[in-house]
Design a protein that fits this description.
By secondary structure, the protein is an alpha+beta fold. 46% of the residues lie in helices and 16% in strands. The strands form 3 sheets. A 4-stranded antiparallel sheet has the order 1-2-4-3. It has a two-stranded antiparallel ribbon with strand order 5-6. Helix 1 packs across helix 2, helix 4 runs antiparallel to helix 5 and helix 9 crosses helix 10.
Length: 258
């Protein structure tokens, strides 16, 4: 058996790995078979030995580095299987096909000397950078509620920094905002309408413009008409902060008793 030429080599923590989709494809089984076997036998798998679990920044970094994998922006957790993890899944599936495929993977994939590292500026194509900008922009929009224009600019900056490649001309192609840009924090809004920041946030929730979860406040679809999540870096910390358009003061004053 020979490996399919479409197999995209992936390396993580200086080790060749396979995604669950790749593993299922080669073992000719369904993804849920791999997932079910893992969930039913977690005690037989050790993280860092049989698999790596990627989330957050690490997942986004892999998404950018291996853009050809086309990892969905909606994916929040990704498992990468090492040679030992692939062998364990082969044993659990117990089919002749799985054993045959693993032997081929072991010889022609996991044990190959050439390693896939982070793509260098010399190796990456401009078209690949554009694809990665698009994927990262969508991830920012879906994850943080960032408006399209801002997400494109931030994604372009991130890819530019990552490859140390000047992408300023691309930033000039980003269309102007179709809405008023948010500039006001709850503190600034409160100063204008004589409310504390806490009361402002409560009013915004009451209006259905934002909701609160364990990570803080996030915009509702209605709220996105009057605000956007803006990235920030402060005192060594970074994240996203909701900033509202001046129109929000009029909306909140409708229910404020003078």
């Amino acid at each position: 058996m020979t490996l399919q030429t479409s197999l995209i080599p992936v390396e993580y923590s200086d080790e060749r790995v396979l995604t669950t989709d790749q593993l299922a494809n080669f073992y000719e089984c369904e993804v849920h078979n791999i997932t079910k076997n893992f969930n039913s036998n977690k005690e037989k798998f050790a993280e860092g030995k049989h698999y790596f679990k990627l989330e957050g920044e690490e997942l986004n970094k892999l998404r950018v580095t291996f853009g050809d994998l086309q990892i969905s922006p909606m994916t929040r957790t990704l498992y990468l299987w090492t040679k030992r993890g692939a062998a364990r899944h082969s044993k659990m599936l117990g089919t002749d096909k799985a054993w045959e495929v693993f032997e081929t993977l072991e010889e022609n994939y996991f044990n190959r000397q050439e390693r896939i590292k982070f793509i260098s500026k010399e190796e990456v194509k401009p078209s690949q950078m554009v694809m990665e900008i698009g994927a990262m922009s969508m991830a920012l929009q879906n994850t943080f509620g960032v408006q399209k224009g801002i997400s494109l600019l931030k994604a372009t900056d991130a890819i530019s920094d990552y490859y140390n490649f000047d992408l300023t001309p691309l930033k000039e192609l980003v269309p102007p905002a179709e809405h008023e840009i948010g500039t006001l924090t709850p503190t600034e809004i409160g100063k204008q309408i004589n409310l504390s920041p806490r009361k402002v946030n409560e009013k915004l929730v009451e209006k259905g413009l934002q909701v609160k979860d364990d990570k803080g406040y996030r915009l509702t679809d209605e709220g996105k008409k009057y605000a956007e999540s803006m990235p920030y870096t402060r005192n060594g910390h970074s994240g996203y902060q909701i900033k509202w358009t001046p129109q929000i003061t009029t909306i909140l004053l409708e229910n404020v008793v003078q």
